[in-house]
Specification:
By secondary structure, this protein is mainly beta. The chain is 4% helix and 40% strand. It has one domain. The strands form two sheets. Strands 5-6-7-4-3-10 form a six-stranded antiparallel beta sheet, with no helix packed on it. The protein has a four-stranded antiparallel beta sheet with strand order 2-1-8-9, with no helix packed on it. A hairpin with a 5-residue loop joins β6 and β7. It is globular, with a radius of gyration of 15 Å.
Length: 145
């Protein structure tokens, strides 16, 4: 799982903030689930390309977030406050395999808190610089055992 929170506070999860009686984050964005390995490529100081190896929504749990009867097409664009996502490539059945995320802020801006899921829970993540790539491995379904 790869996510970013747009705030200056920590930790980056809504329920954690709520349970600790803290201010809720301005925005949290899930850029890829942990159900497949994900390659992340730095394009420039504002942009990442995310490539889930099996495509987004490859597992039944992922389909809670989007009905698979609504396929994506290359060029599909979603603009949110502080972020624009563009689908670059898809599988034959319309699931994104390459997404370009462009942020209003630079990726290393301290207001962007990057996290990834690990066997220890959420841990800080540093996005790759322009021209660099990082592979986040798929966690075992039974990683906690």
């Amino acid at each position: 799982m790869l996510g970013v929170s747009m705030s200056t506070s920590d930790p980056p999860i809504f329920l954690t903030h709520y349970s600790l009686d803290r201010t809720v984050l301005a925005a949290s964005r899930l850029l890829a689930s942990g159900s497949t390995a994900v390659e992340i490529e730095g394009v420039d100081e504002h942009t990442l390309i995310v490539r889930p190896t099996e495509g987004l929504f490859s597992q039944p749990w992922d389909r809670v977030f989007r009905d698979i009867s609504l396929p994506f097409e290359p060029g599909f664009t979603c603009t949110l406050k502080g972020l624009t996502a563009v689908v670059i490539r898809t599988t034959a059945d319309g699931r994104p395999t390459e997404i370009r995320y462009s942020f209003d802020k630079q990726l290393d801006d301290p207001q962007l808190q990057w996290v990834t899921w690990s066997q220890q829970g959420f841990v800080p993540f540093k996005p790759p610089a322009a021209g660099q790539r990082i592979l986040l491995k798929k966690l075992s379904l039974f990683w906690w055992l």
